[in-house]
Design a protein that fits this description.
The complex is a heterodimer of chains A (98) and B (539). Chain A has 98 residues and is an alpha+beta fold. Chain A contains 1 helix and 6 strands, in the order H-E-E-E-E-E-E. Chain A folds into 2 domains: 42 residues; 55 residues, no CATH class. In chain A, the strands form 3 sheets. A two-stranded antiparallel ribbon of chain A has the order 1-2. Chain A is elongated, with a radius of gyration of 21 Å. The N and C termini of chain A lie far apart (48 Å). Chain B is an alpha/beta fold and 539 residues long. Chain B has 3 domains: 31 residues, no CATH class; 295 residues, 3-Layer(aba) Sandwich (Rossmann fold); 122 residues, no CATH class. Chain B is built from 27 helices and 13 strands. An 11-stranded mixed sheet of chain B has the order 2-1-12-11-10-3-9-8-4-7-5, with helices on both faces. Chain B has a two-stranded antiparallel ribbon with strand order 6-13. In chain B, helix 6 crosses helix 25 and helix 8 runs antiparallel to helix 17. The longest helix of chain B is centred in the N-terminal third of the chain and has 20 residues. The termini of chain B are far apart. Classes of the chains: A alpha+beta (98), B alpha/beta (539). At the A-B interface, helix 1, strand 3 and strand 4 of A face helix 1 of B.
Chain lengths: 98, 539
């Protein structure tokens, strides 16, 4: 009985100590999701190198399964593969979207 | 991917698709997406390519022409007798002949500076005769300059009572083939074609003798062989300064190592082969006489008659074809790949099912010769059942295209595409059965073209009318024109060949040894030796 109480207390202590880390990770994740939401809502991302505005919607071919569709370039609806970067259509530099 | 991303993609998915579709030009949004396996769509894309080999017409009447990426590759044409295989081969031959002359063929102009090489091996004579008539009809309507071109362009392999094509079996001709390789291939072909038994002793002797002929660059000759084996002095003289030391060593100790009966058995086989006057004249001419009588020319189209007739039995006729195929497989890997080479094997199943020794070389060739721009076309009645399974499988795997005329077993090849072929109703199984039935009952000249990676396509082969009525002559007259005008450029009169052989014999063999000096071979050293000798003698 005592051992079980000690285990629960120990686990609680660990979560308490780790909570700042989870908090930081959670905030970063929310920031990333917000970036993704903004990009998808805007339908385009601006290249930080040349300033060209790259449309996210296009005839996209999945790099993994080869499926081609008129949709966002960030996710394949056939295999679920997602990508975080696209190549700028103007300067060919990679752009991190989220 | 996490739940959050998934939610966001779902949230904005429809908007993304809308925006993407807005990018598509209006005219194209309504278009049906192109089927990547549609052969007509592929051919339409390739429409601008320089080489468009005419093949036939589509059901809607449009001409069907194939680009080099299909037409120049290995192909298999299967169909029952009378279904149109031969006519299709003839249309291909006619196209190549006309294009090499710079003339249009079936409405397709010759590509600029066109050059190709083609060889037909026909083990049934029928196609060979059709080509002869075709060429003769073309010849009589040509200008003198073009007639000269035709005479130079066409080479013939034939063996008749009047003329023969020289076939120097053991002439290495500066190639990098070793004497052992050549002797091995020739012996394999001979054994496969012969009805006689070849014991291990005779095989060993025949192989070494073949090497000797290759090293010395001399033709097979009975008088030479008799004197070589029976006259030790002559043999010693012939072995002096021989390039191959092991061949010289083998024959130097012949009398000690080989029973006389083995030599006699070998001589009997040689005599049997060279008993046929056409074969003796063809293979027996010394290489320098061949070079003198038939100077090398720019042959582009070679037609070979390997059919049995009243002059040669089937086995001997097919043996000629096998020897020729061996020569081709030897030289093709060394040719310039800039010029395409088309090897057409008519009745391939007949030829290959009786030439087991060619299975490996041909299977290997079908895998490797693509790199040398060589396209092998095999025409057969019953391809899968008539050939050894490994060979049939290798050839099927390496073929780029199949042309299925009316046929039974091979119909299954395209049955799996039944769902994609328009005009068939019912379930998948019913469509397959209907397609198989359709192929089994195709009318003459109708065929399915199946190019790997594309849906099979039904078409009608090109019309190849009999050239004789068009030329206002009989078949016999056209054949006579061919024999008179084209044949002499690549054949030698039998009498001339015999005279050349006689001269060579007189110079090389000289007078036969006196009867008393015939070596008796090693004496039997016991009952086992004696029995071994008797066994050789029996064979």
């Amino acid at each position: 009985m005592t051992r079980a109480i000690l285990r629960v207390l120990g686990l609680g202590l660990l979560y308490l100590l780790a909570s700042p880390v989870f908090l930081v990770l959670g905030i970063r994740r929310l920031q990333k999701l917000q970036q993704l939401h903004r990009a998808l809502a805007a339908g385009a991302v601006t290249c930080p190198s040349c300033g060209y505005r790259n449309a996210l919607a296009a005839l996209a071919r999945c790099r993994r399964c080869g499926f081609a569709e008129y949709a966002t370039r960030l996710r394949c609806s056939a295999c679920g593969q997602t990508t975080k970067t696209i190549d700028c259509a103007s300067c060919q530099a990679s752009i991190r979207v989220w | 991917m996490g739940i959050g991303e998934d939610f966001l993609f779902r949230l904005h998915g429809a908007k993304g698709r809308r925006e993407a579709l807005r990018l598509v030009p209006k005219g194209e949004t309504a278009a049906v997406p192109e089927d990547p396996r549609s052969l007509p769509a592929f051919l339409a894309r390739e429409d601008g390519s320089e080489i468009r080999v005419p093949v036939g017409t589509l059901p809607d009447g449009r001409p069907l022409a194939l680009p080099a990426s299909i037409a120049w590759k290995a192909a298999i044409e299967v169909g029952a007798s009378g279904s149109g295989k031969t006519r299709k081969l003839l249309s291909r031959l006619k196209t190549e002949i006309l294009w090499n002359l710079g003339l249009p063929a079936f409405g397709s102009p010759a590509p600029a500076d066109y050059r190709s090489d083609l060889e037909l091996l026909d083990p049934k004579t029928e196609t060979f005769d059709e080509v002869k008539k075709l060429v003769a009809a073309l010849y009589i309507e040509s200008s003198p300059g073009r007639q000269r071109q035709l005479r130079q362009m066409i080479r013939v392999f034939d063996w008749t009572a009047e003329r023969v094509t020289p076939l120097p079996l053991y002439h290495l001709g500066g190639s990098d083939t070793s004497d052992a390789f050549l002797a091995h291939q020739r012996l394999d072909v001979e054994i496969a074609a012969s009805r006689l038994t070849y014991t291990d002793g005779v095989k060993g002797l025949a192989f070494m003798y073949g090497r000797l002929l290759a090293v010395k660059d001399i033709p097979p000759n009975v008088a030479y062989a008799r004197r070589f084996f029976r006259d030790a002095g002559f043999r010693t003289k012939e072995l002096t300064n021989l390039r191959s030391r092991d061949v010289a060593a083998y024959f130097a100790s012949l009398e000690e190592s080989l029973p006389r009966q083995t030599m006699e058995a070998f001589l009997r086989r040689l005599e049997h082969t060279l008993s046929f006057p056409e074969i003796r004249a063809s293979v027996g001419m010394p290489p320098n006489a061949v070079a003198r009588l038939l100077p090398s020319q720019d042959h582009r189209v070679t037609i070979g008659n390997y059919g049995p007739g009243t002059r040669l039995p089937l086995g001997k006729a097919l043996e000629r074809a096998s020897h020729r195929l061996v020569d081709l497989l030897r030289v093709l890997p060394r040719r310039n790949p800039a010029t395409p080479f088309f090897l057409l094997l008519e009745e391939a199943a007949v030829l290959l099912s009786q030439a087991g020794e060619l299975t490996d070389p041909l299977a290997n060739a079908s895998r490797t010769l693509r790199a040398f721009n060589v396209g092998i076309t095999l025409a057969a009645q019953d391809f899968a059942a008539a050939l050894p399974k490994p060979l049939a499988r290798t050839l099927l795997l390496n073929a780029r295209a199949f042309v299925l005329f009316q046929s039974r077993d091979e119909a299954e090849l395209v049955a799996s595409f039944a769902d994609e072929i328009p005009g068939l109703d019912g379930t998948s199984a019913q469509k397959k059965a209907a397609l198989v039935r359709e192929i089994q009952n195709l009318p003459p000249r109708h065929a399915y073209l199946y190019v790997k990676g594309y849906t099979p396509l039904r078409f009608v082969t090109l019309d190849m009318p009999d050239p004789a009525p068009a030329a206002g002559m009989t078949d016999a007259e056209l054949l006579a024109i061919f024999d008179r005008e084209i044949l002499p450029a690549s054949t030698v009169p039998l009498a001339v060949a015999d005279e050349e052989i006689r001269k060579w014999e007189a110079e090389t063999v000289g007078a036969p040894p006196s009867a008393g000096k015939t070596p008796a071979g090693p004496r039997p050293k016991g009952i086992a030796d004696l029995l071994a000798g008797l066994e050789e003698d029996e064979s």
